[in-house]
């Protein structure tokens, strides 16, 4: 995209291909919200060549990373259940 100062540039909407100002909040034709070009980076996966060993250890690490989340959810569930159970069984 060409950097311009104070000049509106017409770009194609990624949904309906209508001409839209680059500063528009959404497409006037289809309502699609344009991606923020400053924060959004294009992602392209061209090849996923992963050895079984590295995939296996990646999944093991992922499972260990999920343990604290399970503990937090279980603790919250227990506390909420302990508070609500006496209220519901009056």
Question: How is this structure best described in words?
Answer:
- By secondary structure, the chain is mostly helical.
- It folds into two domains: 7-41, no CATH class; 51-90.
- It has one helix spanning 52-88; strands at residues 10-12, 19-21.
- A two-stranded antiparallel sheet has the order 1-2.
- Strand 1 (10-12) and strand 2 form a beta hairpin.
- The model has no long low-confidence stretch (mean pLDDT 81).
Overview in brief:
By secondary structure, the chain is mainly α.
Specify the biggest β-sheet: 2 strands, antiparallel
Rg of Cα set: 25 Å
Helix/strand order = EEH
Approximately what portion of the residues adopt beta-strand conformation?
5-15%
Strand order of the largest sheet: 1-2
Total count of helical runs of at least 4 residues:
1
Low-confidence stretches: none
Bin the helical content: 40-55%
Secondary structure tally: strands:
2
Task: Give the termini distance in whole angstroms.
Answer: 66 Å
On the 0 to 100 scale, the average pLDDT is: 81
Number of domains: 2
């Amino acid at each position: 995209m060409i950097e311009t100062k104070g000049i509106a540039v017409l770009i194609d909407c990624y949904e309906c291909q209508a001409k839209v100002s680059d500063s528009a909040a959404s497409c006037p034709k289809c309502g699609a919200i344009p991606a923020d070009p400053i924060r959004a980076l294009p992602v392209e996966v061209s090849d996923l060549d992963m050895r079984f060993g590295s995939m296996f250890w990646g999944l093991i690490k992922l499972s260990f990373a999920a343990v604290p989340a399970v503990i937090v959810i279980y603790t919250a569930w227990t506390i909420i259940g302990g508070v609500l159970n006496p209220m519901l069984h009056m």
